[in-house]
């Protein structure tokens, strides 16, 4: 008997060119944006569904019901009151620079501190920014970071994104309070949101984006993109936390571009979805640029996380440091694929990547595949991957001090993730994430 793998060619998102044209017409978009959408659609149609490519061959998405998952979502009048309060709390004390809340792709709440206007900082939903700041959006939207040619789902996103956020910090401006974006879904179907952050020369900003959704019994697809443009001598701290429901399938492209002497500190958390396929890239593109990418993930039950990271050294004297930590229990599976790349003559670069995995059950599976592609001869680049389980000796030590076994296990796992959680600059958020991790452990 020969077992045949179901062909992915039979399973494709249910969209047409007419959907692209109708979306552009709905928002009365300028011709350049309409052209960008249609060009992205042409790229999408020209590319086959991913299958045997190296970055896709371990990811099986053939069980997605695209008819269900790509149903168009129409806002149904819900307000920010449906969003869990923990996602709406101010990040620091009782103040924040601004808060945008999207429900089912529609902006339902907006608050922006007066100081932002005085500094010329833009913090708006993307369709509004297209109308009011057309030149700035046009110069940066899918031109410097994520591009339609990056893959099948990047092209689909470029053609059909419907909402999102635009953050622009002018040169020499320092954003004192953080900006907070919440994207929450109550309906099943297709969600395509875009995040575009531009921090100009010698400017600074702190941003957090929360993704989550209400429990559901039917499938949804999130096809997203995140673009972080950090210009010369700028500094951006960016936190993205994903906790979609267990019927959501995420396909996302995320890329940061870091200019000369600039710094990007990027934290990524992955807790939700049935399946996540995320491409996370950072281009250290200017002399002296630095990037730190920190990721944590925890999969349980039948979740599958496929996280594909890449650190591109496109200039000499650049530095990148990537640390991912993950855990898996039950029947869950995780896959991390990492790559450090340098162009020829990009000397004096320092690139490091490591993924540490904690396997919490016999049926869970975790794979890590680090890689180097170096075309220069004066570099300091290295990678590593580690795997472990809960050490009985450590558990026994804690139990001998009067701590119960379940509590001892919680303490060890909390300690495993603590290094990464401490990189999130908001105490309330760290406490929230610790509670969510412990809830997964307890089940």
Q: What does it look like?
A:
The chain is globular and about 70 Å long. The two termini are 39 Å apart. The chain is α/β, with parallel strands linked by helices and 443 residues long. The chain folds into two domains: 13-286, no CATH class; 390-443, no CATH class. 47% of the residues are buried. The strands form two sheets. Strands 3, 4, 6, 7, 9, 11, 13, 15, 17, 19 and 20 form an eleven-stranded mixed beta sheet that branches. A ten-stranded mixed beta sheet has the order 2-1-5-8-10-12-14-16-18-21. Helix content is 23%, strand content 38%. α2 (31-46) runs antiparallel to α8 and α10 (405-421) runs antiparallel to α11 (427-442). The chain contains eleven helices and 21 strands.
Strand and helix map with partners:
Blueprint: H1 17-26, H2 31-46, H3 66-69, H4 85-88, E1 98-103, E2 106-112, H5 114-119, E3 122-125, H6 126-132, H7 134-140, H8 152-160, E4 163-169, E5 179-185, E6 190-191, E7 193-199, E8 204-213, E9 220-230, E10 235-243, E11 248-258, E12 263-270, E13 275-284, E14 290-299, E15 304-313, E16 319-328, E17 333-342, E18 349-359, E19 365-369, E20 372-374, E21 379-388, H9 392-399, H10 405-421, H11 427-442
């Amino acid at each position: 008997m020969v077992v045949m793998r179901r062909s992915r060619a039979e399973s494709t998102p249910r969209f047409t060119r007419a959907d692209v044209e109708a979306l552009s017409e709905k928002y009365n978009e300028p011709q350049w944006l309409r052209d960008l959408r249609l060009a992205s659609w042409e790229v999408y149609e020209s590319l086959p569904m991913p299958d045997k490519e190296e970055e896709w061959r371990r990811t099986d998405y053939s069980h997605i019901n695209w008819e269900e998952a790509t149903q168009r979502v129409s806002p149904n009048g819900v307000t920010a009151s449906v969003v869990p309060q923990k996602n709406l709390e101010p990040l620091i004390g009782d103040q924040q620079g601004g808060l945008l809340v999207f429900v089912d792709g529609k902006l339902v709440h907006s608050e922006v501190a007066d100081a932002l206007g005085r500094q010329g900082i833009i913090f708006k939903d993307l369709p509004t920014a297209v109308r009011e700041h057309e030149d700035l959006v046009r110069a940066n939207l899918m031109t410097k970071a994520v591009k339609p040619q990056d893959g099948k789902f990047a092209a689909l996103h470029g053609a059909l994104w419907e909402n999102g956020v635009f953050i622009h910090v002018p040169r020499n401006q320092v954003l004192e309070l953080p900006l907070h974006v919440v994207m929450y879904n109550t309906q099943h179907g297709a969600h395509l949101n875009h995040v575009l952050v531009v921090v100009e020369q010698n400017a600074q900003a702190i941003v957090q984006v929360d993704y989550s959704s209400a429990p559901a019994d039917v499938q949804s697809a999130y096809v997203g993109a995140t673009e972080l443009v950090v210009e010369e001598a700028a500094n951006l701290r960016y936190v993205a936390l994903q906790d979609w429901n267990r019927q959501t399938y995420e396909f996302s492209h995320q890329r940061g571009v870091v200019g000369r002497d600039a710094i990007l500190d990027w934290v990524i958390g992955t807790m939700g979805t049935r399946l996540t396929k995320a491409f996370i890239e950072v281009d250290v593109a200017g002399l002296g640029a630095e990037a730190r990418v920190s990721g944590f993930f925890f999969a349980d039950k039948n979740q599958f996380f496929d996280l594909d990271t890449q650190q591109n050294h496109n200039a000499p004297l650049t530095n990148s440091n990537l640390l991912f930590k993950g855990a898996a229990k039950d029947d869950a599976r995780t896959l991390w694929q990492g790559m450090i790349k340098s162009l020829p003559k990009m000397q004096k670069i320092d690139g490091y990547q490591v993924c540490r995995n904690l396997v919490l059950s016999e049926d869970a599976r975790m794979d890590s595949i680090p890689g180097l592609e170096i075309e220069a001869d004066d570099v300091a680049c290295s990678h590593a991957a580690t795997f472990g389980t809960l050490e009985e000796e450590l558990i026994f030590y804690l139990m001998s001090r009067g701590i119960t076994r379940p509590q001892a296990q919680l303490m060890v796992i909390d300690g495993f993730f603590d290094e990464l959680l401490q990189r999130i600059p908001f105490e309330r958020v760290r406490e929230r994430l610790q509670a969510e991790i412990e809830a997964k452990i307890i089940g």
